[in-house]
User: What shape does this take?
Amino acid sequence: MKIKTLFFLSLILILSCNKDLKRAANPLKNTSESLLVYDSLKIAPSIDSLFTKLHQKTRFNGNVLFAHKNNIVFKKSYGWANYQSKRLLNIRTSFQLASVSKPITATAVLMLVDQGKISLDDLVQYFLPNFPYKGITIRMLLSHRSGLSNYIYFCERYTDKITPIYNNEVLDLMTDSIPLLYYPPNYRFNYCNTNYMLLALIVEKVSALPFADFLEKNIFVPCGMQDTRLFIRGKRERIPNSATGYHYKWTQALPVYQDGVLGDKGIYSTVEDLFRFQRALLAGDLISKELLDESFSPQSPERKGARNYGLGWRILKCKDGSDMIYHSGWWRGNNALLMYDSKNEAILVVLANIRTKVIFGTFQYVFGLLDTTRLPTKILLPKIEKTIPEADSSIVI
Assistant: This one.
């Protein structure tokens, strides 16, 4: 009996040591542990009521996570991962992030800045010699001040709209056809997916790694983002436990030829993995505090209203002067929102696989549970008893 007891005690000690060694080997400690719900604020039922009602009205189908001061307050799935087969969503279902991929791309670029391999004010032509426009810097790409035209549109004129295209091919097309600039470089803010397609190419050039591999090695693995990966049309199409994207009335959104382009979109992730990413970013585990502060700072002085853009992040100014740092997106039936309330240290992640603008307004209610007095003056706080209105269209990306 004593021998058996000693054996089990030894086994427990060995397993415990192995677990500690694995945790110690992770450079971003405490970012990949089991995520538990700590609702000390007692607001989870209110959040659940909101999204339940939206789902019942067929205005939301997806996953939600809300965290306060590094503790998850609420996480839940609503509806189907695949409507036709009635496969249900679970909390580890991954969704196409659309433009919420941009903050991750920006982080990859800023990591190279931190390492001294590039500078924010380096010219794009230094890294991509065939780039046909002068005077455009990495900072301008990050802040959407390059003036470039959007590849989403000009590729329609120069491709067969069927064969998948990739970042290098878009650059070649720009070199050959030289699409007209919308504005002179650094003249004004103009949101443009081409900027982040080019940033992905620069990451590849500087790191000598495919963009997907750089993200995997430097962000996904260190942050414990086990369910995050890139979809590349014709190359990497298998995304385990992913949600099928839908247009209105459950019409499936099929892949398109532009699904081979990365940087501006293409990442599939989960609400938990995005929480891990945001938490590691805020903790200074990915980039320096100086660069993080700059990325959260307005880069377009001509924008006098409540909304601005930093380096990879949108900025929403509240009435008391504090900021909401966020990004949102839509692509092929998937909607995404990642938002950080800097004053209350709260994070909201909403991922949906049916096209709807409603998720871009849910933050009004959820963050309002913490503080109703500081929300942007032009955005009405919806009452839980009523159907939430469509969000201000200027928030939708």
